[in-house]
Design the sequence.
């Protein structure tokens, strides 16, 4: 028996059919065809499925799809505004903060959530906020540099 | 004359010889000469062996037509792979 | 190598595929779908070692929504023996086929026994549960010691040890034993003033790529299949699936998707032959995606090892002799990277007297696959910690001790051949000169140094460079981009053509759209595929010169190519206005037709890469935790085409090594089931574990490459195991003989010492 869920994804109304035990991650990818959010583990350990639910950073694999009903979901696909990249996206490119790129959507969503709460994070604060996002390619160095550089740019500080 | 060096594990196939100078234009001729002298060497080298010519390691089978210069040093090495 | 002034090579343009990756548009293995698609799931052995008496799939077939079920019986019985195949050394297709689907015997917990295609993954999983397997459970062999014990259970009745005598006779778990060396070991040790002999154990660890294996296969009524998969080698997938399924390579087209990490773990096939076979049987496309648990249980981690190293040195620091015995786990089928371990263990050093022995041993664990410099990190752990101990015994600085013994051009490598130009000494000197090396240390802090070496591969690649009418260029190759290599391909083509890199589109093509290319791995893409791109671009340049010659009515040798323009020379100077690439491309149809350059080559002259790493740690005596305070990686890259991505390789490899040293290990229960098949308990480094990873790129150009390029991807993982271990030993004052140095283990060592 499928449930009918109405929600808002990246500012637009969206609806889907799902079973009660399907995850939000599954539904985003399979029903709404938003494949930018990735499955790395399905147990909330890797952060590749990071999305923002009602303004809160969550792992979409740990959210049941019906829980999205009546709420707002923001995914990687909504980070850029039309043709304009978010400064985080631009900085990730400039700093070469991605190699294979599969963890990148999760990092960008998570880092955006960080900077919206804390516009001036220290390196340590950035590392601890992002400790829930695993990367196996970069060793995190260039990712952290990109995030801190973005924070500085958004604050209007020249580095 | 290519100078062929035999690792300890190969010496039982070469009557104990540690090295041999072989007159050969390319690796294929070299191998023919070695196998003619020591037939048992052929089966042994067929199992996953790479060849090093003057320091460069070349996978098995790719090296047959490599030209040998008058003083090329040849080693047989285990085949390895990268990741 | 002449000092060429590069205009583009060495710059840091934004990678062409970057936009799709930061916006989530890039399509990875699991991101593809086709109409009518079914989901495939694998039934896996719950036993680490068991005979399959029978499999009854009838109840699975009867389930609504199930369209196909396959078992080992659906595969052709592969011929025994192996075929020399590019990257992975020799591939035994009999073993590969049996690994992909068990034939009569399950050899590890998680070994595929059957597979189902159904209309949803949930139905497919339910169907798997309804497959009845009649097992005869056998005692599992779960360690090297157990495999080598007298009366050990035997995994393969027909296994006989190959290699160098003396060889064990009769049924065995030893797949091979090899030996190499030279000189007089006894005399060498006798001449030493200090001799140190140590034994080390490292656990089975996994590459840890974040993207699980995924495939979407469709087979048409004509028996031809299209396969979308995340792989390091589309041509490898084609060849291996053809072998395992007993079909022609011309019946399979492989489209490589973007790949979310590989590190060697995606240089073979697991799901692909299953998906093709299921799609053939079902008559519909079949998608299969591994869960994280399946990735850990049933793909290809790297060997757990037992390594003994003995080294002797004189008081002046000269090494006199070295001996190593390396025993590596192959997993369920033969083929650990022990050979590479043997060849790399002493490779950085000048040694006249050396003996190295290597054992390849099967155990009831997943068959090991390549993991970044396969076989080398475990060997370097042993050598580089003994080197550190020798340095301390001799009262020498660890870098100075290595400088005394460092291999350089002309030195006979311990694995046989003479080195050409190499950059080990340069990397040691750069490490010694780095401010990190002089920074003061506080209480409970220690500094470790270690060196590393990897051969780097050449192998075969094809490239096409096509000029578009507007003067832009498309560069097509067949090597998947796992670390930013597309940007480097574009840079090299742009350099040759003399156009801005933004006007070059690099493309990774499927197996029907480009000539044969060996896979991405072995640190070979920038070197070998790059060489093909350079040659193809030069082919374009020669055609452009010919078009200019035609236009000006002069001989070809009166036309030079400079900075993206044809320039009259050689007696015709000044007689003709230069023609830009854009102009020539715009009138290509009039001067002879479209311009495409091509190259297919087997690259020679891959240059080895050396590195020196420095690691500072602080230990917590209460908890046993180790914190990495500072890390510097120095490496010879030959020529850094895109420095940001060279740095990225150095940083990523170093961090994998740090994880291997401090946290990562496969933990098996007594029955051989993996107890930590997830990222929570298989603990890879996270951002808060680490400092910035400083990098220094040294450039000792490889004389055999047009730009001097050396592979860089694998060397970075070789030093960190020992760099971290040496740092911990110095910080804690205890002897570490086993990895990982996890908190309980370090606490136990500290308690024992006090």
Sequence:
């Amino acid at each position: 028996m499928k449930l009918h869920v109405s929600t808002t994804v990246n500012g637009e109304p969206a609806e889907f059919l799902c079973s009660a035990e399907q995850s939000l991650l599954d539904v985003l990818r399979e029903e709404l065809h938003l494949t930018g959010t990735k499955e790395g583990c399905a147990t909330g350990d890797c952060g590749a499925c990071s999305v923002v639910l009602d303004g809160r950073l969550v792992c979409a694999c740990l959210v049941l799809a019906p829980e999205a009903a009546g709420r707002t979901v923001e995914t990687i696909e909504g980070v850029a505004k039309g043709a304009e990249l978010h400064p985080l996206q631009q900085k990730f490119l400039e700093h070469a903060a991605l190699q294979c790129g599969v963890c990148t959507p999760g990092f960008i969503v998570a880092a955006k959530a960080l900077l919206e709460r804390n516009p001036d994070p220290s390196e340590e604060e950035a590392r601890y906020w992002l400790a829930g996002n695993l990367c196996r390619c970069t060793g995190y160095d260039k990712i952290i540099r990109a995030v801190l550089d973005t924070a500085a740019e958004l604050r209007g500080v020249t580095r | 004359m290519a100078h062929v060096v035999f690792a300890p594990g190969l010496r039982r196939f070469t009557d104990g010889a540690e090295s041999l100078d072989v007159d050969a234009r390319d690796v294929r001729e070299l191998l023919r000469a070695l196998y003619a002298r020591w037939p048992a060497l052929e089966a042994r080298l067929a199992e996953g062996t790479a060849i090093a010519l003057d320091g460069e390691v070349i996978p098995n089978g790719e090296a047959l037509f490599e030209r040998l210069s008058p003083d090329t040093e040849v080693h047989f090495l285990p085949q390895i792979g990268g990741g | 190598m002449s000092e060429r002034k590069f205009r583009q090579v060495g710059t840091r343009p934004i990678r062409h595929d970057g936009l799709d990756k930061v916006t989530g548009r890039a399509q990875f293995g699991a991101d593809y779908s086709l109409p009518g698609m079914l989901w495939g799931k694998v039934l896996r052995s719950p036993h680490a070692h068991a005979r399959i008496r029978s499999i009854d799939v009838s109840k699975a077939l009867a389930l609504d929504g199930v369209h196909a079920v396959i078992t080992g019986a659906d595969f052709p019985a592969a011929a025994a023996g192996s075929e020399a195949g590019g990257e992975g050394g020799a591939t035994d297709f009999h073993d590969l086929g049996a690994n992909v689907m068990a034939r009569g015997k399950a050899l590890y917990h998680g070994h595929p026994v059957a597979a189902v295609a159904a209309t949803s993954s949930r139905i497919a999983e339910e169907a798997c549960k309804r497959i009845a397997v009649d097992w005869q459970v056998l005692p599992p062999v779960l360690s090297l010691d157990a495999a080598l014990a007298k009366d050990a259970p035997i995994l393969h009745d027909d296994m006989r040890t190959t290699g160098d005598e003396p060889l064990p006779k009769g049924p065995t778990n030893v797949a091979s034993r090899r030996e190499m060396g030279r000189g007089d070991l006894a005399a060498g040790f006798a001449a030493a003033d200090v001799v140190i002999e140590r034994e080390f154990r490292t656990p089975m660890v996994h590459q840890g790529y974040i993207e699980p294996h995924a495939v979407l296969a469709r087979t048409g009524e004509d028996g031809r299949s299209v396969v979308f998969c995340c792989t390091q080698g589309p041509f490898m997938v084609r060849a291996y699936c053809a072998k395992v399924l007993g079909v022609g390579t011309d019946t399979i087209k492989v489209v490589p998707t973007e790949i979310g990490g590989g590190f060697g773990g995606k240089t073979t096939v697991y799901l692909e032959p299953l998906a093709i076979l299921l799609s053939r049987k079902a008559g519909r496309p079949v998608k299969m995606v591994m869960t994280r648990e399946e990735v850990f249980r049933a793909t290809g981690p790297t060997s757990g090892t037992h390594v003994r190293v003995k080294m002797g040195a004189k008081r002046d620091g000269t090494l006199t002799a070295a001996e190593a015995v390396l025993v590596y786990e192959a997993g369920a089928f033969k083929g650990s990277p022990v050979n590479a371990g043997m060849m790399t263990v002493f490779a950085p050093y000048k040694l006249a007297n050396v003996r190295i022995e290597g054992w390849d041993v099967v155990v009831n664990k997943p068959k090991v696959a390549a993991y970044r410099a396969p076989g080398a990190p475990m060997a370097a752990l042993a050598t580089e910690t003994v080197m550190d101990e020798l340095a301390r015994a001799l009262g020498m600085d660890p870098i100075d001790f290595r400088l005394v013994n460092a291999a350089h051009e002309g030195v006979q490598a311990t694995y046989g051949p003479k080195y050409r130009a190499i950059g080990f000494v340069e990397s040691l000197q750069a490490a010694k000169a780095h401010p990190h090396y002089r920074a003061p240390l506080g209480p409970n802090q220690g500094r470790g140094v270690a060196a590393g070496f990897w051969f780097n591969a050449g192998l075969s690649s094809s490239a096409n460079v096509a000029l578009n009418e507007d003067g832009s260029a498309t560069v097509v190759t067949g090597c998947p981009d796992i670390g930013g290599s597309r940007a480097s391909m574009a840079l090299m083509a742009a350099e040759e053509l003399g156009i801005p890199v933004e006007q070059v589109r690099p493309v990774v093509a499927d197996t029907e759209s480009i000539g044969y290319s060996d896979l991405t791995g072995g640190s070979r893409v920038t070197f070998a595929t790059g060489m093909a791109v350079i040659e193809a671009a030069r082919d374009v340049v020669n055609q452009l010169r010919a078009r200019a010659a035609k236009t000006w009515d002069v001989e070809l040798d009166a036309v030079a190519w400079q900075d993206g323009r044809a320039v009259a020379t050689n007696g015709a100077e000044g007689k003709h206005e230069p023609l830009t690439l854009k102009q020539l491309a715009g009138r290509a149809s009039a001067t002879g037709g479209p311009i495409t350059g091509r190259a297919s080559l087997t690259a020679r002259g891959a240059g080895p890469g050396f590195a020196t790493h420095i690691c500072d740690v602080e230990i917590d005596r209460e908890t046993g935790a180790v914190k990495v305070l500072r890390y510097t990686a120095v490496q010879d890259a030959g020529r850094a085409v895109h420095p940001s991505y060279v740095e990225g390789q150095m940083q990523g490899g170093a961090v994998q090594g740090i994880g291997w040293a401090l946290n990562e290990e496969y933990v098996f229960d007594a029955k051989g089931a993996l107890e930590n098949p997830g990222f929570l308990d298989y603990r890879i480094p996270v951002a808060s574990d680490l400092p910035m990873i400083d990098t220094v790129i040294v450039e000792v150009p490889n004389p055999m490459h047009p730009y001097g390029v050396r592979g860089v991807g694998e060397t970075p993982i070789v030093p960190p195991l020992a760099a971290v271990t040496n740092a911990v030993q110095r910080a804690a004052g205890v002897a570490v003989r086993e990895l990982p140095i996890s908190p309980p283990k370090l606490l136990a060592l500290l308690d024992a010492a006090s």
Remarks:
- Chain A has two domains: 3-78, 87-155.
